[in-house]
Amino acid sequence: MKNKTWSPIAALSITLAAATAACSAGDLDPAGSVAPGDEASAAEGALEESTDLGSLEQGLMSCANPDGTNSVMAAFAVAAAKELGRWQAGKDFVVFGTSGYSEASWGMQQAIKLQSGTDTSGQPRGKSRCADGKCAQVQALLDMQYDQANNQVYFQGSGTTRVLLSPAALRSRMVAKLREQQTCDSSARDGDGGACPREEHKLVFQSAAPGSCDMNFYFKATKPDGTALLYPNQLKNKLKFADQSNPYISFQNLGGGVVSVDPTLGLNPLDGDAPGNCSSACTKISPTPLDGTCCSCAGMNKKYVKTKWSAVTFLCQ
Fold it and tell me: For the chain, which ranges sit under pLDDT 70?
């Protein structure tokens, strides 16, 4: 993660993105005008977009990641979009009891995990939505909730600094935010910018590029049948499970059904990642084995070592 200097160019790019989102809002009728009786909702939506923009600017100026959980939560949102093809955390994840050491160890503490099988509408959920049957990238991030990762997972900070992840803080936050998402979903309303949408969606990964905090990940968002969403701006409320106040989320509706979020380098695999590249990521999730390959963390060149708890998570040591 690199600290960013706020500039007029950055401000302009965010302003343009917000304007595009407002123009493609779902409270417009097919002819492109505000539907009768919705003038108040449209005004509220414009105010909300303005408020969101102010909050986003504050986040972009700080990109704070004090206990590592901001970047992991955003990476969690990206992994869910890529592997599960949606942001339906209330259907795909569940709170359960754990000792806090690992997902397999039962106890009185709480964490979240993937579900499986089908939901109440008969659609596959959680692990049953993933081609590998286990959602390896999502699971790798969920595994960081546990004490098995204590004092081991670092993220690149500014320059030669690095940030140590707190598994306990991540576990607590994931539980709290999943419950917040479930509450929002329970009172879903289409056409209300402050509510979760009832409208179903699917997400298809498009590309990634350097973002305001780290890497922006772009997704095509449509209805499950591929047609345009009527309420694309409300998708931001499906990200409560990753914490909407998280500066690494930076949700944007860029128009044409494209949305983006902005997690930390290394936590979401990209096409073109290869063992031959000396990656500047202290912790890297990769379906390709990286043991013994070059890495850089906090300004020092080291080698990746596979963790004991995850076959796809590697630490620069």
Answer: 1-62, 271-277
**27 and 84 assigned to the same domain:** no
By the 10 Å C-beta count (0-12 exposed, 13-18 middle, 19+ buried), 130 is classed as buried
Residue 97 is assigned to a structural domain of this protein: yes
Q: Is residue 124 located within the same domain as residue 33?
A: no
Please, are residues 125 and 119 in contact by the beta-carbon 8 Å criterion?
Answer: yes
b or e along 87-101 (b: 16 or more beta carbons within 10 Å of the residue's beta carbon)? bbbbbbbbeeebebb
Domain count, the chain: 2
* Residues 74/249, Cβ–Cβ less than 8 Å: yes
Say what the pLDDT of residue 279 is: 85
Structure-block tokens of residue 275: 């063992």
Q: Which amino acid is at 212?
A: S
Cβ burial of 210 (10 Å; 0-12, 13-18, 19+) is exposed
Measured torsion, CA atoms of residues 5, 8, 12, 14, in degrees rounded to the nearest 10: 20
Query: Does 179 lie in the same domain as 74?
Result: yes
| Domain co-membership, 51 together with 129 | no
Whether residue 82 lies inside any domain: the answer is: yes
